[in-house]
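User: Assemble these into one structure.

Assistant: Restating your components, then the assembled model:
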Amino acid sequence: MIPEQLLEIVEKSAHIGVLTGAGISAESGIATFRGPGGLWSKFKPQELANVEAFLANPELVWSWYQHRRDVLADAKPNAGHLALTAWESLVSDFTLITQNVDGLHRLAGSQRLLELHGNIQVNRCQRCGLESDLRELRFSGDVPVCACGGWLRPGVVWFGESLPEREMQQAFEAAERADLFLTIGTSAQVYPAAALPELARDAGAVVVEINTEETSFSPLAHFSLRGKAGILLPALVERIAFKKRP
Ligand code: BJW
Ligand code: ZN
């Protein structure tokens, strides 16, 4: 299932960069964005994931995020998340870059983690920018309000908004110094995150895609593995763990 040549590269690689997307959390019961049954098969992105939509209809946007928080409350990291945590413990330079806002990588124990699109559990004031982790805050019809009077919103990055500068800088650096870069469970359509695998490739990394479907990035990957992250990642990491055993 995994080419021997790739396993040999994996064993030798000391600088690892990983980009994950919604697909890695699919096996934890979290809907992806663009696939069949994805979050946006029911809602159009432009209706929900931008600030204009929020200002025009905050109740609709909040009810979508509250629904996702409710689903997340019962979700657990899966074998794919856990395999990445194990991999991190086996190499000294390992950077996990995620577009996901679900917090499941952190829950799985990943340390060197860059959350490019924020975290759905955080609330941020649309007016003063103050952030708070108010998990007990539950949207039930009235838009929650900050002490300054501004509307609270989920602490995520919407279309047209800037990604966190420090995290983005670190993500670019990790892609540039990687000798092995994996892109896992992402349709590679949303920028600037989608530029990272190509940047890594141009800087000399071997780039591996893990996805159940072909994506626009598949032809550019050195290895494109077709299958579930929760199956392929443990198989990959088990082999490294075995080789590194004294
Ligand atoms: C499995 C699996 C299993 C399933 N195992 N695999 C350059 C070029 C063109 C456009 C732009 C550009 N630069 C910027 C833009 C504009 C825009 C953009 O990219 N638009 C494109 C859509 C064209 N980008 C932005 O606006 C970004 N900001 C920015 O660039 O700021 C600077 C700026 C400001 C102002 C003007 C101009 C520039 C911000 C982007 C923010 C994206 N936010 C979202 C919502 C976050 C909050 C929330 O969660 O609600 O982030 S959009 C949504 O897409 C979410 C995701 O993180 C992101 C990526 O989706 P992902 O993870 O790839 O999911 P899917 O569903 O698409 O794919 C899942 C994959 O998994 C599939 O391939 C499956 O096959 C696979 N799969 N099961 C393995 N078990
Ligand atoms: Zn405020």
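The longest helix spans residues 58-73.
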